[in-house]
Predict the structure.
Amino acid sequence: MAKVQKKSIPKKPRWRHLVLPFLLAGIALVIVFFAYSHRGRQAATANPGSNVLLITLDTTRADHLGCAGRAAARTPNLDRLAASGVRCEAAYSPVPMTLPAHCTILSGLYPPAHQVRNNGSYFLPPAVTTLAEILERRGYRTAAVVSSFVLDSRFGLDQGFAAYDDDFAAGGAKTYESQRDAAAVFAAFSGWLAGHDGGKFFSWVHFFDPHAPYDPPEPYRSAFADAPYDGEIAFMDHYVGEIVALLEKKQLLKNTLVVIAGDHGEAFGEHGERGHQVFCYDENLRVPLIFSAPGSLPAGLRLEQKACLADILPTILEYLREPVPPSVQGRSLLPAMQDKKMPERDLYLESFFAREAFHCAPIRGIVRGHFKYLDLPRPELYDLLADPGERRNLVSARAALGRELKTGLHALARRLETGAMESSRRLTSAERDTLASLGYITSAPTVQDGALADPKDKIAGWDVFTKGAQQASAGQAAAAEASLLRAIELIPDYPGSYTILANVYYKNGQGDKGLDLLGTALARLPADPTLKIEYADLLIRMDRSDQALALLQELAAIGLVDKKARVHSRMAGIYEARGDIPRAIAHYRQALESEPENDEYSRKLAYLLHRSNRFAEAMTIYQALERKQPEDAQLVRDMAIAYAQLNDLERARSYFTKALRQSPDANLYFNFALLQARRGATAEAAALMEKFLSLAPAGSAQAGAGRRYLAAWRDR
């Protein structure tokens, strides 16, 4: 038998005995290094005496900033704020719409609690306590500068702000197209800051620039020719930097907490939607969230835990060592900035837009850990860690998890709805005029219980409508017609497609075709008030005021709050054209009750009161208009005459003098001459009348009267 050789077992080399202690020592050094480097990072501390500057970035995706890793971004100022402070890497808006998202930011409440579910149709209830109200009571000087009509003061966000600058139309009528760019926002903010008295302040500045249509000014237009959305963000970033530099110049930055927050994101077709509002995917809901306060907050800290816009209010209050109201549903992130472990929590998401726009099921969702569940007729479940683009619906493969998250979502929604407040609001006339072209128009119908369509089934029609509305706005009549007709095929119950297309027809000289289209739409949707008032408007433009008046009277009798101003202003115009001035006055008053900021209605009412010799009533309106438009030439002339009729001769003289400086004409010289004669200044009266006669037609009756006045004054 052959011997079996035993394999020799090699001895461990002696060097391994020497390496192990060094390895352990190295690990210890690494641990010590990280411990000391972490300890070396400045700990977050409260600062009760700090100012607060909240800057909100409309329609800004989290992943389109340089600090989020986007190489093509040009956002040096936002990046510097992130580097000097704390950036939340997973911050969510609860809703992909501007008004409800800002209500959450300023109240710390989710939409089920503050009940603002859409733009335009809602307002923040007065019973909600806002951050501005809290800080105003603590002695802060409060001011807001907003840049889009979506955040106009009528929607309730002005609560607690001593100054709320929402002047988008220079005193004119506002519509959903009313906005201003970052340069104008900066000018308004710097104007307010110039009057800063040295006390503590809370200021909110809102930039709207990245909202569609994307059209940045030069040099950003050329630099981002292939990515205009990024160009808008770069333009906005420049003025964020200007604001920060202004605070630094005034030595205010060192004692100011700067908070940067996006209100929602923007989709570029990832799930069939372009824009935002309809869906609750991450491209619509992941937003930038940055807290910067050098000397108080750690620099360069990146928080990985999920955050929500509802967390902004409690974080600011804890930073200021102010008590957080128990009703607040967000939580302070300050402990996380202090490296304290915070438990995971569920985040709530929703969009009611499709429900109100085209009668689909509302979207409600929950984020738990790295999973997102969307409760829909065809529910969706995503693993955000493995599938950040939300492409693989796991609702069938992970049915048990889906059921668990659905149960959790319903429980969370019930908790958030505790203490919900009434906030429904109807749109005014000016708000409706251009709402559809931005994709915001909704008829806010009462949707009956029962099976509703999944928004996924109508997104193709909505996308075609959005395209058609943009084409109509750009004057591309043929393309708009094709798109809107296709949208009507895909979502036939949406009134916006009919109303915009009817307007396209009218502008193209096909008014009768527009009337026929709206008639067809009304046969399909006979109770829709939007269709009725658009039909009435088109009838007025087509000189069929009798038919229009009948429709308007029907709408006025229903008492629709959202249509009140528009209905009554149209009725006033019809009665004015008929010479029925008392009825016209009554209807303009009704319109102004609903929309008191509308200067067009105010002017028309004042004019009719003036014509009716009701000068004192007219003067009250004139004075209110003058506070907003002190250099308006026609207003100055009207006030001069009204003061003369009220026998306030000195004020009348002052206004006539100003009117002559602005826009002299024959009639103005004639009336000023009569005023000066009443004041006993016959020499001045004669000189003015001579000037009148040099300008007036020699054979006119007014010229004859002027010559008689002049002769009488010379005989004295």
In short: The mean pLDDT is 88. The CA atoms of residues 158 and 164 lie 6 Å apart. DSSP finds 29 helices and 15 strands in the chain.
